[in-house]
Design brief:
There is one protein chain. The chain is of the alpha/beta class. The chain has helices at 7-14, 18-25, 33-45, 52-59, 75-88, 104-116, 134-141, 165-178, 194-209, 229-241, 254-267, 285-288, 299-315; strands spanning 64-69, 94-99, 121-124, 146-149, 160-163, 184-188, 219-221, 248-251, 275-279, 293-296, 325-328, 331-334. The strands form two sheets. It has a six-stranded parallel sheet with strand order 2-1-3-4-5-11, sandwiched between helices. It has a six-stranded mixed sheet with strand order 7-6-8-9-10-12, with helices on both faces. Helix 5 (75-88) crosses helix 13 (299-315). The longest helix has 17 residues, at 299-315. It is elongated and about 85 Å long. The termini are far apart.
Length: 335
């Protein structure tokens, strides 16, 4: 069984006191340079690592951050995590990642587990199934710093980071109209999510400004966020069964874009597929559908900004009363 080397082990090997070793490893001015070098060299040769539990007890912090996302395999979230880590490790924090897979029960368990591990703060992007926020509100009321990104809630005041969902939806829908399409359906995420309402608004505004009839029957919601492929296939079947089949679809999320393309490949001949534009940070969708137009979110920057905001909350000496709602711009990319 692996047994890591301890400060006491180093002290015994070098015939000095454990307190001298501890101060030497902390670069204390009380320890002379020769002793520091002996201690540090020995520690490095024997792969010494500080005990994070002991450190957290001494300093009142774990120097760890909990990150809750729906799915690491999702290109948007993997890029956001890169942004989070780019800040966290430079500031001395470790990142613990948990996946909700867009399931409420799993989100609750993950958040409770992270809180029980005494993380210093949480970065959360809400699951598609979550409508009850009590598990998060209780932690906030007990003083745990929390920052939301992408999928946010307004149950209490804190920092949030999102992309300009309304404008991104406008860009995607307008790109379809500019290509001559008029019967444009919308495949949306769970209706209660913040991103769903904002993207639906942008889609509707562009239709109306271009004189295209607003038709609610052309909107289908995926209440599990596309986690269950069957719900996406059911939506595609619905579009295919309409008397007047849509000639284009605006898709509201990364996972739904992939699921929608897969469903059409399964259910309809290639030549009958509609044009598709949607939110996606994936580089592989063009392999499924050449000509796919995507709205790319600044995922790395979103994660970076959210992490900086969380560290500010954690390290602030005084209670924070002013909170920022940062909105980052999207980019339209036509393959």
């Amino acid at each position: 069984m692996f047994k890591p080397i301890t400060i006491k082990d180093i002290a015994q090997a070098l015939d000095i006191s454990p307190s001298t070793v501890s101060r030497a490893l902390s670069d204390s001015y009380e320890i002379n340079a020769e002793t520091k070098k002996r201690v540090v060299d020995y520690a490095e040769r024997h792969n010494y690592r500080r005990n994070p539990i002991a450190s957290s007890l001494r300093h009142g912090r774990s120097y760890s951050i909990g990150v809750v996302v729906c799915e690491v395999a999702n290109s948007f979230f993997s890029q956001a995590i890169d942004g989070i880590e780019s800040v966290a490790y430079g500031k001395g924090y470790h990142v613990i990642i948990a996946q909700s897979h867009d399931a409420y029960e799993r989100e609750v368990v993950n958040i409770q587990h992270l809180a029980n591990r005494a993380v210093d703060g949480l970065l959360i992007s809400m699951s598609a199934e979550t409508k009850d926020f009590s598990h998060i509100i209780k932690l906030h009321e007990h003083g745990l710093p929390i920052v939301f990104f992408d999928r946010i809630i307004d149950a209490f005041d804190t920092h949030t980071v999102t992309s300009n969902n309304r404008m991104g939806a406008q860009k995607a829908t307008q790109s379809l109209i500019n290509r001559g399409f008029r019967k444009i359906a919308h495949l949306a995420n769970a209706p209660h999510l913040s991103i769903t309402a904002e993207r639906l608004e942008g889609y509707r505004e562009v239709l109306e400004s271009n004189g295209v009839e607003w038709d609610e029957s052309l909107i289908r919601y995926c209440r599990h966020g596309g986690r269950i492929q069957q719900e996406v296939e059911d939506a595609v079947r619905y579009f295919l069964d309409l008397d007047e089949v849509p000639d284009a679809i605006f898709v509201a999320s990364d996972r739904l874009s992939l699921g929608c393309l897969s469903a059409y490949n399964k259910l309809a001949p290639r030549e009958t597929h509609p044009a598709i534009a949607g939110f996606s940070n994936s580089d592989v969708l063009d392999l499924f559908r050449p000509g796919f137009t995507c709205v790319r979110q600044p995922a790395f920057e979103m994660g970076r900004v959210a992490m900086e905001m969380l560290i500010q909350l954690i390290e602030s000496r005084y209670p924070t009363h002013h909170f920022e709602n940062t909105v980052l711009e999207t980019e339209l990319i036509a393959w």
